[in-house]
Amino acid sequence: FAPRHFLSIADLTPTELVTLVRNAHQHKTAIKSGSTPANLNGALSGKTVAMTFSKRSTRTRVSTEGAVVALGGHPMFLGKDDIQLGVNESLYDTSVIISSMTSAIVARVNKHSDVAGLAKHSSVPVINALCDLYHPLQIIADFLTIAETHPASLHSSLGLEGMKIAWIGDANNVLFDMCIAAAKLGVDLAVATPKGYSIPPFMKEIIQSAAASSPKPGKLIETNIPEEAVKNADILVTDTWVSMGQEEETAKRLKDFAGFQITSELAKRGGAKEGWQFMHCLPRHAEEVSDEVFYGPRSVVFREGENRLWSAISALEAFVVNKGEIV
Ligand code: CP
Ligand code: NVA
């Protein structure tokens, strides 16, 4: 029996993506009102979920540990200095051993090939907790956050078709999975990056095949002019300009990204929709978004952060409890 892994939003059909977001919403509503859904109650009782993290994390660690506990299981956090992986033992040996004693592996790695390698040799589901190309748990939380502003739609399909997201900043892991999700959900995504930082061609192909999997795909628009991306956008979103692992490029990046900070003046100049909202996966640095926007009334970043918990519960239910059957 080959386990089903969750390495990217690209692993989901459009219907499965909607289901993961909808389930996250239903579990959030039920658990917050004091009732754990019967199928989740003790669903991981007596089971261990390994969390192998080779980079720091606040949200992903807290939400995953909390989600495993909510399902009655034991989260075992294994930081980069705790285990032999990458220093004293191969990916193959580590994967075979950890998966022989646990029910799932949630892994934060540097290279996508590392999480793919773990998955290849694991006898239990592997869930990607961030690599250099993808961040699927974040994107489930992000679309839950967006869908919550259209509560009626959460009962069937998300009904977000025709909406426009503007991403202003670096073309990175969070953006790539967001593009794949937007394409599948019929949401248009305009990406403004400085010259030299656009989405690489191989990733554009992956986004195009995501679009081909959708009956009503969202459009990907690319530009180097932030105002152009912002035009008529419902959501303005960004992430750090310097992802973990790129620290050596900090000075160059700060220079190259000058003029890409999200501010209310940018939203006004570019002509964002009247009720535009701001999102950010966090951690945030002041250069990519002004305090006024980040802490202002349009910002949904802290609800987005909390939604990581509900996203993790939904993903564990689908991939670990239900063994990859997303219903
Ligand atoms: N958004 C996110 O993944 O945050 P952490 O790096 O703190 O987990
Ligand atoms: N793009 C960021 C996301 C952190 C959650 C990074 O990779 O560091």
Automatic annotation (TrEMBL):
E.C. number: 2.1.3.3
Signal peptide: none
Superkingdom in the source lineage: Eukaryota
Cross-referenced Pfam families: OTCace (PF00185), OTCace_N (PF02729)
GO CC annotations on file: mitochondrion
Record key words, sorted: Amino-acid biosynthesis, Arginine biosynthesis, Transferase
EC class of the enzyme, as a word: transferase
Family: Belongs to the aspartate/ornithine carbamoyltransferase superfamily. OTCase family.
Name of the protein in question: Ornithine carbamoyltransferase, mitochondrial
Upper taxonomic lineage: Eukaryota, Fungi, Dikarya, Ascomycota, Pezizomycotina
